[in-house]
């Protein structure tokens, strides 16, 4: 079952459970754990799912989304983020969470149930500044991010490629967004053709079936990107390769 947790875990996550001043010397303070955070997010996302779709978002739906945002933004230590990723991988959830290989960027995505407002999906990224974990919004239209690929530039800079999609009936939208961490901030990285920081493509029907459920196929630890073949949609080339600075079309093979 997804939501086997006690109601004890539903509390404000920014606090720490502190015992009284007269506690025995051999006792220690108990901090919030990754399991606590996931339990809270699971409970909130379950309540969202139970609301279904409505032409106008109810006050309850708006409040649940606000509670989810606050819960995610309360995650302020690298250890907590890493612990959550380890537990998340072994359970099913109604929200999506992905963490970069070096554990410095994590992205949460969930369906808000507020489609009528134009805010169908909510994204919150958490990144490591070197001193703490900071939350930030992401550029571009919110989508469900499933993976984070990571490559290193010839200057030694880590580049993070967020890989996600958005489905609506027979329509499918796939996108890659590139970011880097610089001077304590998470910034867009213009590493795709034409100095773009994102690469996207849309499929308006389920035929032909794509070879990858996320549209783009990223290979060789992010060094190579295979673009999906979609009828009547012009593409830059069948594949892109990273040269240490940016991605460029690979020459056609005979």
UniProtKB/TrEMBL annotation:
PROSITE patterns: PROKAR_LIPOPROTEIN. It comes from the Bacteria. This is Lipoprotein. It comes from Flagellimonas hadalis.
């Amino acid at each position: 079952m997804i939501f086997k947790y006690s109601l004890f875990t539903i509390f404000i996550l920014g606090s720490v459970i502190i015992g009284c001043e007269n506690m025995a010397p051999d006792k220690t303070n108990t901090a919030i754990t990754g399991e606590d955070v996931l339990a809270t997010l699971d409970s909130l996302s379950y309540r969202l799912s139970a609301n279904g779709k409505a032409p106008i978002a109810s006050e309850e739906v708006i409040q649940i989304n606000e509670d989810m945002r606050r819960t995610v933004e309360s995650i302020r230590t690298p250890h907590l983020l890493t612990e959550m990723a380890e537990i998340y991988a072994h359970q099913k959830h109604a929200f999506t969470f992905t963490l970069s290989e070096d554990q410095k960027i994590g992205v949460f995505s969930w369906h808000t149930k507020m489609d009528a407002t134009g805010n169908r999906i909510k994204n919150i990224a958490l990144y490591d500044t070197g001193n703490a974990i900071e939350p930030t919004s992401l550029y571009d239209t919110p989508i469900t991010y499933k993976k984070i690929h990571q490559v290193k530039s010839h200057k030694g800079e880590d580049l993070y490629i967020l890989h996600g999609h958005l489905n609506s009936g027979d329509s499918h939208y796939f996108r890659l967004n590139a970011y880097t961490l610089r001077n304590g901030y998470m910034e867009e990285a213009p590493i795709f053709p034409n100095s773009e920081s994102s690469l996207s493509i849309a499929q308006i029907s389920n035929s032909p079936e794509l070879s990858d459920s996320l549209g783009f196929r990223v290979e060789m630890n992010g060094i190579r990107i295979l673009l999906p073949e979609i009828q009547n949609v012009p593409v830059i080339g069948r594949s892109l390769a990273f040269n240490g600075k940016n991605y460029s079309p690979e020459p056609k093979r005979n």
